[in-house]
Amino acid sequence: MSTVFKRIIDKELPADIVYEDESVIAFKDINPRAPVHILIVPKKEIPTLKDITSEDELLLGHCLTVAKLVAQNNNLEGYRIVLNVDKAGGQEVFHLHFHLLGGRQFNWPPG
Fold it and tell me: Is 97 in the active site?
């Protein structure tokens, strides 16, 4: 069964897309945790970080480059990139994705 992200990639579900190219899509999170909360999702279906291979290095680097571009497009001076891994790490959708969070002050360590 395909994930909600795969269905967004395939345009079966609507999303507020802020960036898209041949390998990555970025869209606004429907349950934002910050004023700016955008998900950066590789179009290749990779369930978790545990499932990446050396073949995915360029793709994951590209995801971070997209995160930087999206942050710039949103005039974010500072921001946080989050990658949750597996259920115990807070991952809810098992299609690897990065959370770009910004527009407010973040604390360390996270709460």
Answer: yes
